[in-house]
Amino acid sequence: MRITSAILSVALALGSSPRSIDAFGASRYAHRSSWSWSSSSSSRGGSSSGRPVATDSSAAAATTTEEVASSSSSSRPSLDPGFREARDAVIAKLASSLPSQALVAPLSHFVDEYFRALSEAAGSSGGSVDPDDGSAAEKITAEMATRTMVTTLGYGMKYGLGVGSPGGKKFVFEDVRHRALRGPATTTKKVGGKDDDARYEDGGLREMLGEDADVDFYAAGCDFFRPSMDLRRSLLLGRDNLDRAKAQLDAGENVVFLANHQSEADPQVVSCLFETVSDDIGELGADMTYVAGHKVTTDPLAIPFSMGRNLLCIHSKKHIDADPSTKPAKSKQNMAAMNSMLSGMKDGGMAIWVAPSGGRDRRDVSTGKIPIAPFDQKTVDMFRLMGNKSRVPTHFYPMSMVSYDLCPPPDFVEAGVGELRNVRYTPVGIAIGDEVPNVGGADQRHLFTEHAERECAEGYVRLLRGMGMESYIP
Q1: Which of 333, 327, 331, 282 lies closest to 312 in space, CA to CA?
Q2: What is the model's pTM?
Q3: Which of the listed CATH numbers 3.40.1190.10, 3.40.50.300, 3.40.50.1820, 3.40.1130.10 matches domain 177-472?
Q4: Where is this region: Disordered (predicted)?
Q5: Shortest CA distance to 400 belongs to which of 330, 328, 453?
């Protein structure tokens, strides 16, 4: 399988100048997407794979053909020749396009990971993105992988690094509560309905987005990750609870999903699984507000990915305490985020996804098992308090998630060490547990958190058994 010259020409356009870099996001391609990675320091670090990747420009050519291929092939299916050619075309030009050679290694690794995941997906059950394999479903091909990848990198360059944007400016999340950028005509909670987004009347936003002003960044993120999810073998449990939560939202009440967190792509996992149920449930995934840490609004390629999500930006306790000099400002921002969330909950009909653990689940390297990270009681207490203060009925549901293999995180957290992003073709799973009764006084609040965590853990085990992943059960 050979990729067409039109697609290859875009991959080869990654060359000589900032203007040429902007070809990543060329409007000729309707398929647009985004991704996250770390170019320098991060609160999480190391590579879970330990694979050798070139670290300077002189090694870029070796990374393209030999090193990347040999480092990723030992435990995964062989790379289809067409996907290998497409991967090499993208990686070969990265070194001459990036503003810093320090970015070559992590991006080369990421490109290789994505092409390997989609190559495996293409060889599985006909390689259709649609789990029902309808006639209109787009097939997973090397051309498709190239389109998504070059567009992804283009968005990261433009909005995360400011390369090719007006005045070289990065996209800035100016508010603690961000509303997804889905184009001037934004899909509303009423399925199929459209509403004019007044933000697009702002000349500053239109100037920043340029030719991307009509892009639905939410759909772009889903389109990027959907091919790497084996939706035929994925699992969604607790449909009755999900329907109940949707009915409560439609009645103007609030719903908070208390979830474990396994992958940077968890919001896309929610959306892609919810949309397999119905249009109504799919829109719930789009309308959801995701509680996010600082990383998703500051990491270069996370920025366009986050532009397509409704976000509530809160600094974790670990991040607040990391630098005493910035602690007052971060604490003030968190208070602003809580007030903004309270305002939304007072309006009613607000769906919120939050991981009370404050981070991703980590593999036990001694056993290979993956336990869910403990819920933080203070976090749960805060959301209960906001629900009570809103004076709008607020419901709490445990949401168990299995997505670890989609983007496996490093086994250890090392401050100041960049994180290589990994991508796998894998099934994913979600289980919605029974509603946790929002009752009990201050002296019993720990029981609520324990109940929610226990229900989440039990749903997690049911998912792992149903998906044939018993080896991960703690």
Answers
A1: 333
A2: 0.83
A3: 3.40.1130.10
A4: 32-82
A5: 453
